[in-house]
Amino acid sequence: NASIARAHKIVQDPGSGSFGSYVHHDGKTGVLVQATGSISDETLRKVCMHITAAVPRPQGVSANDVPANIVEKERRFLIEQAMESGKPKEIAEKMVEGGMRKFFEEIALLEQPFIMDPTIKVKDVVGKDAQIVGFYRWQVGEQA
Fold first, then answer.
1. Helices (H), 36-67
2. Is 57 in contact with 41 (CB distance < 8 Å)?
């Protein structure tokens, strides 16, 4: 028995980009990455491997791509935390700004430390001549 929890249709103009894919050795996790520009198949595969292994799991390519409900939930949590600390309003606002910056560095794919070399970020691996357009990660048993 098999049931499909989610599916995506990806459309790309011929010759305008490329795809990379990776299925983890246990056969339970797979990733598809869509890119434009000059990027090798090996680099795309490494980015896919990163997405498979990264903790916390990337939620968007960049900070702008992170779903609004996730951003709002984190912002509410940080505001609540800042208010409980008893700091003045100006300092509390700066705490929230700093916390959100750190949050985006943790869950935006291009800002994450690269899993194979944590001294560099994923955007450094991708390079200036390419751009990650999107990615999808599937895992057996994962709910939509």
1. 41-53
2. no
85-100 exposure pattern, b = at least 16 Cβ within 10 A, e = fewer: eeeeeeebeebbeebe
Among 43, 52, 57, 70, residue whose Cα is nearest residue 124: 43
Q: Are 103 and 111 in contact (CB under 8 A)?
A: no
d(CA 107, CA 123): 13
As a whole number, mean pLDDT of residues 49-58 equals 93
Average pLDDT over residues 72-88: 87
Q: How many CA atoms lie within 13 A of 99 on its CB side?
A: 18
- For 61, the token pair is 């390519």
Whether residue 8 is predicted with pLDDT greater than 80 in this model: the reply is: no
Q: Which carries the bigger pLDDT value, residue 140 or residue 12?
A: 140
* 132: nearest Cα among 45, 37, 64: 37
Tens of pLDDT, residues 97-129:
999 999 999 999 999 999 999 999 999 999 999
